[in-house]
Amino acid sequence: MKIVIIGDGKVGHKLTAQLSEENYDIVLIDQNEGKLKEALNQLDIFCITGNGADVEIQKQADVPHADLVIACASTDELNMLSCLLAKRLGAKHTIARVRNPVYYRQIDLLKEDLHLSMAVNPELAAANEIARVLLFPETSKVETFMKGRVELVEFPVREESHLIGLSLAEIYQKYQIKILVCAVKRGSEVYIPDGDFVLERGDKLHIAAAHQELKSFFCALGRKTTKVRKVLICGGGHVCFYLTGQLLQAGMQVKIIEQNEKRCEVLCENLPRATIIHGDAASHELLLEEGIQSADAVVALTGMDEENIIMALFAKTQGVNKIVAKVNEDTRAQMVEGLGIDSIISAKSATADAILGYVRARNNSARSVNMETMYRLINGKVEAQEFIIKKEGDYINIPLKDLPTKPNNLIACIGRNRKIIIPGGEDHLEVGDSVIIITKEHVINDLSDILA
């Protein structure tokens, strides 16, 4: 599959790194020669210096024969124009990153006219992720599958947890709730566990289940389901704009602290039900003055990772129950996890995952399954993928206990006729099923890839 990526920014670079690892044929276009040299030294790709919206540059990159062109340069206009040109030159599919809320509101019209296969909005993707976490505050991350009917949540085992010292088989037996622990992060190690796996303090569990079953499980654990009602957001950029709209709709009270006066006016105009404070959210006095101690959740969304980390740590010292910080740099995000801030969000990662899912789906469209959704978990060490079985295969109608699967692969959930099945040994797969597969350390393009 030949892929041309326009723009070597945060999203472009992450995508290039992930796709080149999977042996796609990648050409990267950017105007900054220094950046491209760096990418060329690190990755097995071909680079072209120039403007991605220039027909001659696109021809040099062999866009006319490209299977996919992904435009993630600095401006929306450049991305949309680059995709339009690529389509005219003969590229089979195009994806544009579109951030501006005004453009994104009318993206369905634009998609048609520009012949876009997909439009991705990093800020909206990040806002959706934060909203899910705030609606389910016991968790530190929530991903959805099967059109929202199945959730895969990250859940930390804290010191006082009843789960410590129990094996997964004992947990399933004790609580009798249809959930499945699909992956466990312990220190720097990651496990795809079986029933004998015993939980320890500090483990991070990834649990798949229907929403109601998860609620029942957290209730059974004695977790007080404290609903988030008051949210304090630090930083009033695009992520804040999208997130506030969702939180107000869910009946929450939102207070936003933003340093730029003009931006405050825009927010006041567009979000009349939110409280907008003009000030520096990095000021501890201001945070105390604006009632950080009485907030149920604090979300740090300024443009600087370091500021967000400091605000999150300050919120922790003030006893805030739910803290979310936007940290785009991968290495910083891994450092912050150790500081006890559970929910780290990266707009860059959310966007790269969405595009990578689309690329994989295109790549396996000729096979016996369609890939619907894909998420990378635990810093990319584990993948959760949703497939729809289109036709017969070696794995159909065989009880799962008799299905020889490779190690570190797990069938986590089956969707059949609007019914969610957390599978046991007697369950089987049928044509038409949606299946969620959890895999560690290798890529799956077809369900037969998990068979031993």
TrEMBL record:
GO CC, any one term: plasma membrane
Keywords: Ion transport, NAD, Potassium, Potassium transport, Transport
PROSITE patterns attached to this UniProt entry: RCK_C (PS51202), RCK_N (PS51201)
A GO molecular function held by the record: potassium ion transmembrane transporter activity
Limits of the RCK C-terminal domain: 140-223, 372-452
Name this protein carries in UniProt: Trk system potassium uptake protein TrkA
Ranges where the RCK N-terminal domain occurs: 1-124, 228-345
Natural source organism: [Clostridium] hylemonae DSM 15053
Highest taxon of source: Bacteria
